[in-house]
């Protein structure tokens, strides 16, 4: 597992796991499970009693603004730092105690890859592979070439890593995580530094890995990235878990935006504002806004009444309805905060 020190991550003080009655993750169970996981740095509470469950076979998005506790959580899960309190289990075993059993089954890219700048991309992978005691040296070069090809770095394999762009370094770190088949892949902001085409390629690769049976745990501050590739997600803010579940369910929990198509957008916006529609956006023949919540009697506002009000005011309504709620809508509804959508 490429860690932060240029080689496989082996936590200090990690002991070999001799069983102790622990069983591996059951098929269809949880590959990551935390209970009240907490990390403090002095008076700063970085992660606050986190209860997280990552289903086997999922592409799980770990979503939150920069500084929300995502990387700290990942470092605890991988045994790189000790929690202040609480527990973490990965592949059914306690971390960090079972690190030597668990980590060979996990590929990870955390806080960017640690590379030897004076070595080529290919030689970096060969060095990573040689540090794995389970890796067959007879097939080392074949594995390295396959990993380079998978992340689109074959043409640059002979170039020294110090000459790589940030995006190329991210790709090389991902290739290192893919040298061996993994049950779990943990990626911390994997599209950092990539151009739009590179981001699409990484999303495609993640989908392929999931189709092959690998569980992918993907942290990001980009809502659009999570919504496009993930089956499940958890939302963090200020070190606390706000919600988690299937992405479709999270989005379904928020109301979509009201959309009115009309050649009279100015008048439509005036009427909608009077009726409590917020966050209005007016374009040439389209008005969108946040539907009003409950009326004075505590009842949900009837959208048909809004449509009737527009017609009564002489607005020529060509289209009227709700757009499907996005993950961004759900996040704003849960936290009241804005968020990066696509970087």
UniProtKB/TrEMBL annotation:
Positions of the ABC transporter domain: 32-263
Keyword Ribosomal protein in record: no
TM regions (residue ranges): none
Record has Lipid metabolism as a keyword: no
SMART domains (UniProt xref): AAA
Source domain of life: Bacteria
Sequence segments annotated as region (Disordered): 1-29
Stored InterPro entries: AAA+_ATPase, ABC_transporter-like_ATP-bd, ABC_transporter-like_CS, P-loop_NTPase
GO molecular function terms attached to this record: ATP binding; ATP hydrolysis activity
Assigned keywords, A-Z: ATP-binding, Nucleotide-binding, Transport
Listed Pfam families: ABC_tran (PF00005)
Similarity field: Belongs to the ABC transporter superfamily.
Protein name: ABC transporter ATP-binding protein
Source organism per UniProt: Streptomyces alfalfae
Organism classification: Bacteria, Bacillati, Actinomycetota, Actinomycetes, Kitasatosporales
């Amino acid at each position: 597992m490429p860690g932060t020190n240029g080689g496989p991550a082996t936590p200090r003080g990690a002991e070999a796991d001799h069983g102790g009655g622990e069983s591996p993750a059951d098929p269809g169970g949880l590959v990551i499970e935390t209970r009240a996981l907490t990390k403090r740095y002095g008076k700063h509470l970085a992660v606050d009693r986190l209860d997280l469950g990552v289903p086997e076979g999922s592409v799980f998005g770990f979503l939150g603004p920069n500084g929300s506790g995502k990387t700290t959580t990942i470092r605890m899960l991988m045994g790189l730092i000790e929690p202040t309190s609480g527990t973490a289990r990965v592949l059914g075993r306690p971390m960090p105690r079972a690190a030597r059993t668990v980590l060979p089954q996990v590929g990870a890219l955390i806080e960017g890859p640690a590379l030897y700048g004076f070595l080529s991309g290919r030689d970096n992978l060969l060095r990573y592979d040689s540090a794995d005691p389970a890796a067959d040296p007879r097939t080392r070069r074949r594995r390295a070439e396959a990993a380079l090809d998978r992340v689109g770095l074959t043409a640059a394999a002979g170039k020294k890593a110090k000459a790589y762009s940030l995006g190329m370094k991210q790709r090389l770190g991902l290739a290192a995580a893919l040298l061996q088949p993994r049950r779990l892949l943990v990626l911390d902001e994997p599209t950092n530094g990539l151009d739009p085409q590179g981001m699409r390629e990484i999303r495609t690769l993640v989908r392929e890995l999931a189709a092959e049976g690998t569980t992918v745990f993907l942290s990001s501050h980009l809502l659009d990235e999570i919504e496009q590739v993930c089956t499940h997600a958890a939302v963090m803010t200020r070190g606390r878990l706000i919600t988690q579940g299937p992405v479709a369910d999270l989005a379904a929990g928020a109301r979509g935006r009201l959309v009115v198509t009309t050649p009279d957008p100015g008048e439509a916006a005036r009427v909608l504002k009077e009726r409590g529609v917020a966050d209005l956006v007016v374009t040439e023949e389209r008005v969108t806004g946040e539907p009003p919540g409950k009326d004075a009697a505590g009842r949900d506002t009837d959208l048909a009444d809004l449509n009737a009000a527009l017609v009564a005011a002489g607005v020529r309504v060509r289209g009227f309805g709700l757009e499907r709620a996005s993950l961004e809508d759900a996040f704003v509804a849960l936290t009241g905060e804005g968020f990066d959508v696509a970087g």
